[in-house]
Amino acid sequence: TDLDAARQQLEEFIPHVKNISDSSIRKMAGRDLTRFKQFKKQGIAVKFGRFTQKENNQIRKNVEEFLSLTGLDSAEKLLFTSRYPEDKDTIHRLKTQHHFCEKISEGIPRPWRLIYYRARKMFDPNNYKGRYTNEEKEKLKKYQALHGNDWKKISELMSRSNLSVAMKFSEIKSAINYGPWTKEETQKLMHAVQEVMRRRLEAENASSLSSLEQSNRDLWIDREKLCQQLPWTEIEAKVGSRYWRQCKQKWNSILTSKMSKGQQLYRGTKGLQAKINLIKRLYETNAEDTSEVNWEELSNAIGDVPRAYVQAKFYKLKVSCVPFWQRKTFSEITEYLFEKKLPELEEKL
């Protein structure tokens, strides 16, 4: 396939295609381009971000149908073939013969690679094993010393998922401070985020480089960029004394404080009113899944705060107010909050 032509065609569906490597472009040209064009004919746009419940169900259906078609007895064999060396050749042959790539991505307007990673996360029996014991933490430190950051190898030794062992090691690799943030730590965090933002801006717009050089202190970035996902493990390394999740939470609290001009948003009658507004707005969206909610827009229901702040408040509401919330769909949770919790909050207000 002509690489430039493939990149040009994919650009219609993937705006950030210029940042994708040549090898990935070749794979996408083979696996995705025809699918994307078919979805376009149906008026369906290519999606990114969090998978919806409907898409998760479609992945389950696709996997189950492929297992039925091939006679394989488990999704783990299909998606983690390297764990079954004796059956590896047979499984690879069946995958090729029955067009695994096409079947697994059927009905889902996303790049094949993302669908495949999502399926692996959903069907990995090592992915839902609860908290690490002290013994497991010691093993993890020992294996990392032996094998470095070969998380695939370590995940096999630990019987945990790749992502799980990588993130857990990130938490325990050094003496982590769990107390209040010091002024020095906060400054390190601010500088680390600024450095990441600056690098992104320079990559996105080379012509802005001169203006950035003129001003080392003031970096003007729109709100959307401030609130988007950042490389937290990189930021963690720069801060040194906190792990990535602490850095993320602290950054969101800094954004919230700046945007709300330091007001205490979730206190007293203001707090009650904010919860009421949030429940009402979520119910009115009629969304079937969290990924269908415009959290940026919803942030106005509470105040001028980051979307992560609103999402955190919704999480606290459902955990504290909705019984067996883990077994309920997003729409069932919002319905319960609207019918049961809202009258109680309004009466309290």
From TrEMBL:
GO terms for biological process: termination of RNA polymerase I transcription. PROSITE patterns: MYB_LIKE (PS50090). InterPro entries: Homeodomain-like_sf (IPR009057), SANT/Myb (IPR001005), TTF1-like (IPR053078). Gene3D superfamilies: Homeodomain-like. One of its GO terms (molecular function) is chromatin binding. Residues 124-172, 173-255 form the Myb-like domain. Pfam families: Myb_DNA-bind_6. It comes from the Eukaryota. GO terms for cellular component: nucleolus. This is TTF1 factor. It comes from Atrichornis clamosus.
